[in-house]
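Researcher: Here's a chain I'd like modeled. Treat it as a single chain, no partners, no ligands.
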Amino acid sequence: MDRLEIRELECFLALAEELHFGRAAERLHVSQGRVSQLLRALERRIGATLVERTSRRVRLTPLGQRFVTGLRPAYDVLAGTVEDARSAARGVEGTLRIGFQGSVHDEITSAIALFQQRHPGCTTEVIEIPLADPFSALRGHEVDLAMLVHPVAEPDLVAGPVFSRSQQTLAVPAGHPLAGRGALSAEDLAECTLIGLAGPAPEYWRRATAPETTPGGLDVARGPRVCTLQEGLTLVAAGRGAMLLCQPTSAYHHRSTIRYVPVTGLPDSVLGPVWHRGHETARVRAFAQALAETAP
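Model: Modeled as a single isolated chain. Structure tokens:
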């Protein structure tokens, strides 16, 4: 068997995810010509075409699809083994980039403090990621781990232990008919226009944050779509609609023009750490452990 070339495999996996030679080149920090060269070398080694490229699109051949399905788990194991060896050699050092959406809860800052106390050789960076685009920063290696609202049903991502559960609240304008209520049922959402999320978030995730029907089957009017929490709260204050938020986020973002009313009959808002399956490091595992120990 010909000798395996890791760079060829890395190139193919990047191209399989991006389906774009330019983006794959940027991700690998090489030229587009180099991506084409590595792909051709791998296809010669395999003996068949793995990627079809036309002037309008890039797609995997049926063999390419089967190859990436079998290759990805093996590559992730190999990459994880190498990273484990590096981490064992130097300890938990370097930089851990933690993504968050909207606000950083006090419990998360407590976990960061515990992590820093235990691993003074590792610094932490906290990076805000768009509310409407929860996964791209992980896939683009902009963050090592992100604190995200569940559900997370992405095969290339790992959802760590649930960190917190909290009741959902409805953010409504101060003058809205529901603003004076002490609590709402899920069926009351039919009396609102719900602000949803734009961007590349998968549909199941958008529906979880802004359901289109109540549990009883009543339609919920769809309002404007936003990319960030601040955009959503601004539209709520302006009377453009209502927005579902977890209780800690509601408490953090107090505004005189907005009322936050608890909602019963909806699943709790669940928050937990998420990381890329192929980039689990000792830093990520150590921070997940700190989260577990500081969880309410």
